[in-house]
């Protein structure tokens, strides 16, 4: 077969929710077809490398199951029976139903719901214009960053770190609680450069031997939810063996005798009992980072998806503050640079239109909210109508049984704007077809590096697909809103946002595709002090200050929080009936529930599986490849057992969000996860579930 003729290569940006935000070169075959997708050579962080799932993006853009026109449900909820309707019919019906709900139950009975299917700000956050102008219920964003961001800020005072390209100048890279080979492959590019060029040591901390750990010099497999114990024991050793930088701490931190006394009891033996590591492993790790000034801590999200994740992140961040790693090029830490963009997003979110002070509903609690939990509803009335863009809660949200029960309510009018007929779309009254990133204009940020990137429309949109921005505009106008914000086009909103933010004009940005937002190195490494008023890193966090900075809402009694960096033993406890701890770690070829519809990714991931230690399998009579049920009080899920060493006994790992229907019985992995908000400010503890496992055939 002849190779298709590439008419040009277009610069774009990966829109998905992955910290790498890769700059892409996309081969355009004709006005509506793409060919190969490659990582941009001239982007210093992407450095030619992208993940395999996006390299195969033609499979997703040109997928035969893409939604092409609006649909109205004809059968019962969840039946999958729909009829084709026109955009006018769809929008008229939505406007009529929303108006009716507002008249009967008030504006707060309507809850627009979105997340990060695209990370383009215009198409992701523009739904808030409608929400603000109508006074609909607000969305409290917790599902991804609810624990990790507060934990990071509690120490440093702001969300930003050292440019990750500097990992290449490091002598020790600590990859903590992220499976970067799966979730942000570019971390490996730069860490491996340091290893090859400088002989840097790579440390990986996870709860099983991941593909990332396979590349480490020191792999630490801890029991789930015990990273805080490891961190404080490392600090105990640093102080005991004179490896702490006391001069740095005196100048830059709140270090004092009370904290030192607190650490005295956190011995390696104490931590060994909690983490499952040996005293030697803990000591070796402490000595490595204590004797390597250029140690770079790349903190992931995974270890914060435990109920104690916020305090674990804070505790881990205390280590570079104690060694003074921040002082050296190639040293310091990064979790996310999302606090560094200084964007004025008012043109996108319609902040000036905000009507009243509607309640904040926690997105992670969609199950409890839709099933009438009074606490989750903040004492207000039920949610009666939703428009969902950019997210697939029937798959990704915790406590799937409750989520499905809520979405199936006959008295809930549900609109889903999607690229595919997802599990959530299956429950919809009206389904609307969405464009993909190559078919609309937007700009993108992600916390994993220092650039803001622009991605223009480069191919024609297929069928009757419309962008998120266009749908919100059309709906707003039909609902009688007349503000000019609802008459804009996406490109102009990007340009206006750049203008309001003091960024270069879009015409200039378009030429290169990016805005460089690297901060001066000294600022990024807090050389002029941390971002609290006294400029000191906090070993004793003040969580109220964190809440005040970011507008977080407390979900626990502040008095219950540990005073100092510590292990907080609040994860879901195992018991005789639920003797295993389950984590739902990321699959390499899926991105949350995205890509679980593409053939290449499905082939790569195979059937939904669960890893189990050989001793546990032998004890329970479970064979490799056999069907098992994994369950708890929230429900049970059928999976295929994979016997694997490299994880502790008593721990089960189920990688990825396969389609719910790929599981025998149709229940997805989030049936097992808990929607109760994690302390102190909410968030879903996706890797924290006590479960049983048994043979199921
Ligand atoms: N291929 C792929 N890429 C993705 C995603 C995906 O689903 N698939 N998701 C995207 C999104 S939305 C995000 S936010 C990022 C998240 O990416 P990461 O920061 O990598 O976070 P997680 O994917 O939650 O989990 C990472 C690792 O944390 C481990 N872990 C779980 N509990 C603990 C613990 O208690 N201690 C320690 N030390 N480790 C633990 C898990 O086993 C897993 O290997 O990745 C993005 N990229
Ligand atoms: N068990 C378990 N559950 C998890 C996690 C976990 O580690 N374990 N991770 C959690 C995390 S970190 C996150 S961030 C959430 C993410 O959850 P989601 O934000 O729901 O992410 P995706 O599953 O990728 O779904 C995004 C949906 O948006 C659609 N979409 C993409 N672009 C557009 C667009 O331009 N317009 C419209 N209208 N739709 C679009 C896609 O087709 C896809 O169906 O999942 C969480 N769920
Ligand atoms: S998913 Fe992540 S690694 Fe893959 S192309 Fe997108 S930004 Fe890059
Ligand atoms: Mo996420």
Automatic annotation (TrEMBL):
Pfam family, one: Molydop_binding
Gene3D superfamilies: 2.40.40.20, 3.40.50.740, ADC-like domains, Dimethylsulfoxide Reductase, domain 2, Formate dehydrogenase/DMSO reductase
Ranges for domain 4Fe-4S Mo/W bis-MGD-type: 7-65
Transmembrane helix among keywords: no
Keywords recorded for this protein, A-Z: Iron, Iron-sulfur, Metal-binding
InterPro entries xref list: Asp_de-COase-like_dom_sf (IPR009010), MoPterin_dinucl-bd_dom (IPR006657), Mopterin_OxRdtase (IPR006656), Mopterin_OxRdtase_4Fe-4S_dom (IPR006963), Prok_Mopterin_Oxidored (IPR050612)
Domain of life: Bacteria
PANTHER family in the record: OXIDOREDUCTASE YYAE-RELATED, TRIMETHYLAMINE-N-OXIDE REDUCTASE
Family statement: Belongs to the prokaryotic molybdopterin-containing oxidoreductase family.
CDD domains: MopB_3
Coiled-coil intervals, chain numbering: none
Protein's name in the database: Molybdopterin-dependent oxidoreductase
């Amino acid at each position: 077969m002849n190779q298709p003729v590439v008419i040009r290569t277009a610069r774009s940006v990966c829109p998905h929710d992955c910290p790498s935000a890769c700059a892409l070169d996309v081969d355009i075959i004709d006005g509506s077809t793409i060919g190969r997708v490659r990582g941009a050579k001239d982007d210093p962080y992407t450095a030619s490398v992208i993940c395999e799932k996006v390299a195969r993006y033609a499979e997703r853009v040109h997928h035969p199951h893409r939604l092409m026109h609006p649909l109205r449900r004809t059968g019962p909820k969840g039946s999958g029976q729909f009829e084709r309707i026109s955009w006018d019919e769809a929008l008229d019906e939505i406007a009529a139903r929303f108006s009716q709900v507002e008249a009967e139950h008030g504006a707060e009975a309507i809850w627009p719901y979105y997340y990060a299917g695209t990370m383009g700000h215009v198409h992701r956050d523009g739904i808030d214009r409608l929400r603000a102008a109508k006074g609909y219920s607000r969305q409290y964003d917790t599902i991804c960053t609810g624990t990790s961001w507060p934990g990071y800020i509690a120490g440093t005072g702001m969300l930003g770190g050292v440019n990750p390209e500097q990992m290449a100048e490091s002598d020790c890279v600590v990859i903590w609680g992220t499976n970067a080979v799966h979730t942000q492959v570019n971390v490996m590019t730069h860490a491996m450069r340091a290893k090859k060029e400088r002989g840097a040591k790579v440390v990986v901390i996870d709860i099983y031997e991941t593909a990332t750990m396979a590349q480490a010099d020191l792999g630490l497999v801890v029991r789930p939810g015990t990273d805080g114990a490891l961190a404080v024991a490392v600090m105990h050793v640093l102080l005991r063996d004179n490896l702490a930088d006391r001069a740095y701490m005196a100048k830059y931190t709140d270090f004092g005798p009370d904290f030192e006394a607190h650490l005295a009891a956190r011995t390696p033996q104490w931590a060994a009992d909690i983490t499952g590591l040996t005293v030697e492993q803990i000591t070796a790790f402490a000595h490595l980072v204590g004797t390597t000034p250029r140690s770079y801590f790349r903190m992931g999200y995974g270890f914060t998806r435990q109920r104690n994740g916020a305090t674990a992140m804070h505790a881990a961040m205390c280590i570079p503050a104690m060694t003074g790693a921040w002082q050296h090029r190639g040293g310091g830490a990064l979790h996310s640079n999302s606090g560094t963009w200084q964007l004025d997003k008012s043109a996108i979110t319609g902040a000036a239109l905000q009507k009243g002070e509607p309640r904040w509903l926690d997105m992670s609690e969609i199950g409890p909210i839709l099933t009438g939990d009074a606490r989750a509803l903040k004492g207000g009335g039920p949610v009666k109508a939703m428009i969902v863009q950019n997210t697939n809660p029937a798959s990704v949200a915790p406590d799937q049984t409750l989520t499905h029960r809520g979405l199936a309510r006959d008295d809930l009018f549900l609109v889903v704007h999607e690229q595919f007929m997802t599990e959530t779309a299956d429950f919809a009254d009206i389904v609307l077809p969405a464009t993909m990133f190559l078919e609309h204009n937007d700009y993108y940020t992600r916390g994993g590096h220092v650039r803001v990137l622009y991605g223009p429309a480069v191919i024609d949109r297929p069928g009757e697909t419309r962008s998120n921005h266009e749908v919100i505009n059309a709906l707003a106008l039909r609902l009688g809103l007349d503000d000019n914000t609802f008459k804009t086009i996406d490109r102009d909103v990007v340009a206006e946002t750049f203008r309001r933010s003091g960024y270069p004009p879009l015409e200039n940005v378009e030429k290169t595709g990016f805005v460089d937002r690297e901060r001066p190195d000294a600022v990024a490494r807090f050389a002029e002090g941390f971002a609290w008023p006294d400029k000191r890193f906090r070993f004793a966090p003040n969580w109220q200050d964190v809440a005040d900075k970011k507008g977080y809402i407390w979900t626990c009694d502040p008095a219950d929080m540990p005073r100092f960096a510590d292990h907080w033993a609040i994860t879901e406890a195992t018991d005789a009936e639920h003797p295993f701890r389950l984590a739902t770690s990321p699959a390499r070829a899926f991105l949350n529930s995205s890509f679980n519809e593409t053939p290449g990714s499905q082939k790569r991931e195979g059937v939904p599986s669960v890893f189990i230690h050989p001793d546990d399998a032998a004890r329970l009579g479970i064979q490799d490849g056999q069907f098992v049920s994994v369950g708890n009080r929230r429900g049970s899920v059928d999976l295929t057992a994979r016997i694997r060493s490299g994880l502790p006994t008593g721990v089960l790992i189920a990688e990825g969000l396969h389609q719910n229907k790929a599981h025998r019985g149709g229940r997805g992995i989030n049936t097992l996860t808990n929607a109760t908000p994690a302390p102190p400010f909410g968030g879903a503890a996706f890797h924290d579930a006590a479960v049983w496992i048994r043979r199921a055939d």
